[in-house]
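Response regulator
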Amino acid sequence: MKCLIVEDDFISRRILKEMLSEHFDCDIAINGEEAVTSFRLAHEGKRPYDLICMDIMMPGVNGQEALRRIRELERSLQVPPQLEAKVIMTTALDDPKTVVQAFYQGGATAYLVKPISRQKLMNELRVLGLL
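Tokens:
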């Protein structure tokens, strides 16, 4: 399975990659613009991502905007809902408004507050049917 880690912080990227690479072939994007490009290229190469872990707060194109664009791409590519990428939004903000935006406006599948523990992440992956 393929995973895209979208994180502007080097340490956070490294930790997520370390936790996920045992189960996924992981690619890295350091901002929202790279995430959208990586997503498009993965579909063009017929190897779409099963999972995207995306930070919400990033400079330039933030995670919310990148997720909106990714969901638009899926619709334009006519990806059936059951085959859409599972998207876990990650943030340091434990703010109800951010949660609502990630789920209802952005189409996120899950939401985790940093620091992310291995146990929390693996539990979420089980819930999503990815483990």
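The mean pLDDT is 91.
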